[in-house]
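Lecture notes, unit on binding sites. The following record was shown on slide 14. It pairs a sequence with PBG.
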Amino acid sequence: MLKCDDVEMVRLRVRGLAPWQTFTFTFTFTLSSMTAMSDSYRLDLTRRPRRMRRTSALRELANETAVLPQHLIQPVFVIDGEGSAEPIESMPGIERLTIPLLIEECQKLLKLGISAVALFPKLDAQCKSDDGREATNPGTLVLRAIRAIKQEIPGMAVITDLALDPYTTHGHDGLLDLSTGDLANDATVEVLAEMAVLAAEAGADLVAPSDMMDGRVGAIREALDGNGHELTGIMAYSAKFASAFYGPFRDAVGSSASAGTKSLDKRTYQLNPANRREALMEIALDEEEGADILMVKPAGPYLDIIREVREETELPLAAYQVSGEYAQIMAAAQNGWLDLEKCRDESLLAIRRAGADMVLTYFAKEYAKSLV
Ligand code: PBG
């Protein structure tokens, strides 16, 4: 933008007919001479892309990407009891909800056009154990939440995570193998398969194995089919990276507090953020094993992966805009450094533009409200 200084340096880049004819020149002029100059100087351009950006009606006609409430999934944190909602300090605007509050929230979401929620239970410390056995208790919190939603609001699609991190004292997603100190791949999947069947019985539409270990999707598909749940779908966390952006989520479900460390190291199972090819291999495996929806997570820092996956598969693709992506926009906005609505909308648009059909995002409800 020109400032009211006497003299402005203006740099123009003019594209000729061929790339080698591209040249750049710089010239100096005073503000008063600018009008005269723009009148007398004309570029001989056939293409002027700005024509289609001139008015908002034209811009809308040329708009390539839309973010609508139907594309969004609201993740919700659930707590037990009848008490009030609990704010989550590192996720301003997001609260943990009791089941009665969750029902009210789902009603509001549905009215706003959001018809899918992903549930994450936060358990009391006494329900956690080394082996996370609460995960297969038929009366566990998340199963009660699924049943309540399905009973009150059958039109709401319910997605539930299959991983042990909300249930284990160490905060890891699976069973620890004491001989290696690492997670036991195959023994954990047996528990996940049992969780899947319980979730399907409770009415979950989609189960979402999120531990990033091997052979999840195939084993869960088999368990579901073997128990008459052929129509329960699998949303696979296929390319989930070992990201530092999960920090606020771990506060929300208490997995880092129970582990006593802020930086849970999940690098023996989640993907190395440096690895693009390995992500594509994971995607291919989940597709072969029968996933109904593939997912890339986080979303914003991994837009290149979303795009590549979009081009590799015909399956629906989800992207998870994770807690840390939410927190960074909220924090900067609270400081007055970024415009909340504009940055929120742009972040979601970018994820859709990269190729995600659906986005799990903590902004879902507020975004949908802004469209009303
Ligand atoms: C756990 C799980 C995580 C998230 C969703 N499911 C965290 C983790 O892997 O530690 C992160 C979501 C977010 O950060 O919003 N299986």
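Take-home: The pocket of PBG is lined by residues 161, 163, 165, 173, 210-211, 246, 249-250, 266, 322-323 (CB under 6 Å).
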